[in-house]
Amino acid sequence: MTGLVIRLAPHERVLLNGAVIENGDRRTSLSIRTPNANVLRLKDAIHPEQANTPVKRTCYLVQLVLSGDSHPDEVKAPLLRSIEQLSQVFTDFDSRRVLDTASQAVIDGEHYQTLKALRLLLPREARLFAAKPS
Length: 134
Prior knowledge:
Blueprint: E1 4-8, E2 13-16, E3 19-22, E4 28-32, E5 39-41, H1 54-66, H2 72-87, H3 93-107, H4 111-119, H5 122-131
Antiparallel strand pairs: 1-4, 2-3, 2-5
Helix pairs in contact: 1-2, 1-4, 2-3, 3-4
């Protein structure tokens, strides 16, 4: 990976290798050049009690790696298993492409890209739960 570029809104916070960094008054971009740096936008963070759906739980597993709370090797197998389970529900072409991207990112150790891909499924999951008969 040649680097990760993160664009931050004013006063947006990001967790970078365990340190919380807050942006100033203007939009800015950070270029992370260190390979395998743990980066998590705090606005994207899912709290443990919010990980109450299959996609959110999968995102939370990735988040644990990005925050430095879990080692990537510990999470790899459960994460791939979880993505495989999601593929049983999200069978449309676009969702399958997202899941393929997420799986490949896990295999490649690109956890930020994994989370980025999986977050695309959150609105779809919300629609599925909203359409669920009572």
